[in-house]
Write a structure and sequence with these properties.
It is a single chain. Helix 1 packs antiparallel against helix 11. A six-stranded mixed sheet has the order 1-15-14-16-12-13, sandwiched between helices. It has a five-stranded mixed sheet with strand order 8-7-11-9-10. A three-stranded antiparallel sheet has the order 3-2-6. By secondary structure, the protein is an alpha+beta fold. The protein is elongated. Among the domains are: 135 residues, Outer membrane lipoprotein wza fold like (Roll), CATH 3.10.560.10; 70 residues, no CATH class; 78 residues, wza like fold (2-Layer Sandwich). The two termini are 21 Å apart.
Length: 405
């Protein structure tokens, strides 16, 4: 590489001059620095957008339709008071199920006595005609008893069915009495699956079982409660929650109903951190709840030599009502149900630390910290310095060619 200056003037012909590396560096800096500061910094290597780029994209290039919200006292108070939906919110605490009611598929044991030993259900030392085992409730909820015919059993207690059988047999037997017991409970059961000690189908007890009772009956779980995700399904409707919520909120420890399903899996909540933070990447929650300030601390904070503390962003999806309410604007007609939202914190303001401590991080949040503007200039000067070193080497070679000794 040869850098030369040509001039025409009082010199006859062309004059060739070689520049020192210092001159090259100063000349290049004077020419290109205004370009870098004035908008060409986008051509420099960088990990993500600067604060200015985020603000500009919100105004002029918002293809994703994200809402930008500066965190203040009002926003912090609102977000601090918003909790994730719980089982109690969806289903209510409920009441103990009436598991003493017979259901379709249940297997019953029926015994009938009458005063006449030689009657229809009389017993001898060899045959007990009054004992009728394994009576299954059919799909219509009916059972069939000899000489009594079809009797509705589903939705009734064993005592009620016993009385119905007795009434049917009064005209055919002498002083009949009947006793009905549930031998195999198929209808009043709950299913527990996943990472429990003993997955399976469990009958519900007469005292009334809660979700925690069902988990205990299935052998419990051996992972931290804040990593234990529960999918609770009732009548086709499912809600996902974490065991720590059930333990902390009594309303979420719902009473089980026949047919309820519980699936347990290990799934830690996590957030991702990018930009001018010390530890980038995906980070699992190490506690039941994690505030924004604790999330920043868990990535070892902002980097002193790169971070712009006024450009700390939290990215997540919010309901359109919440997003535009916090933004103080009307909901557009074409707004999606889930709106991408970027919350901006300015950690140059001491008040913002208290705001960050009151807002909880959510699963799959994105924490992004922008680079300070001076970092881009440092990058530019570093590139110029490398170019100057290369140019200086080339100039030295050029001097030797022009002025050989």
């Amino acid at each position: 590489m040869v850098l030369q200056l040509f001039a025409v003037g009082e010199f006859s012909g062309q004059c060739c001059m070689s520049f020192s590396s210092r001159q090259i560096l100063l000349t290049a800096a004077c020419i290109v620095a205004p370009l870098a500061v004035g908008g060409c910094a986008q051509f420099l290597p960088h990990e993500g957008p600067s604060k200015a780029v985020v603000l500009e994209a919100h105004e002029s290039n918002n293809t994703s339709g994200f809402v930008l919200i500066d965190v203040d006292q009002r926003v912090a108070n609102y977000l601090a008071g918003v909790d994730e939906k719980t089982l109690g919110d969806r289903f209510g605490k409920g009441k103990p199920a009436r598991v003493n009611l017979i259901g379709i598929g249940d297997v019953l044991g029926v015994k009938i006595w009458e005063a006449d030993p030689g009657g229809l259900f009389g017993s001898t030392g060899i045959v007990n005609r009054g004992e009728i085992p394994n009576v299954v409730v059919d799909a219509r909820g009916m059972i069939r008893i000899p000489y009594a015919g079809a009797i509705r059993a589903a939705g009734r207690t064993p005592g009620s069915v016993s009385l119905a059988i007795t009434e049917r047999l009064k005209a055919k037997t002498v002083e009949p009495q009947a006793h009905v017991a549930v031998m195999e409970n198929v209808a009043n059961v709950a299913t527990v699956s996943g990472i429990v000690g003993r997955p399976g189908i469990y009958p519900l007890s007469m005292r009334g079982d809660t979700l925690l009772d069902a988990l205990a009956a299935a052998g419990g779980v051996q992972v931290p409660s804040y990593e234990t995700r529960i999918r609770f399904t009732r009548k086709g409707s499912s809600v996902v929650t974490y065991l720590d919520q059930v333990l902390q909120q009594e309303a979420s420890n719902v009473f089980m109903q026949p047919g309820d399903k519980i699936h347990v899996e290990r799934k830690a909540k996590s957030f991702s951190a990018f930009g001018a933070v010390t530890l980038k990447g995906k980070h699992d929650f190490k506690a039941s709840k994690l505030t924004i300030l604790e999330a920043v601390g868990s990535v070892s904070g902002l980097t002193d030599d790169r971070a712009d503390p006024s450009g700390v962003f939290i990215m997540r999806f919010e309901s359109r009502e919440r997003a535009y309410d916090l933004a103080g604007t009307e909901v557009p007609e074409d707004a999606q149900l889930a709106v991408p939202v970027i919350y901006r914190l300015d950690l140059q303001d001491p008040n913002q630390y208290f705001f960050a401590q009151s807002i909880y991080t959510r699963d799959k949040d994105i924490l992004y910290v922008a680079n300070a503007p001076a970092v881009e200039i440092d990058k530019f000067l570093s590139i110029v310095a490398k170019v100057a070193i290369a140019a200086n080497s080339a100039a030295s070679v050029n001097d030797k060619i022009i002025n050989p000794r």
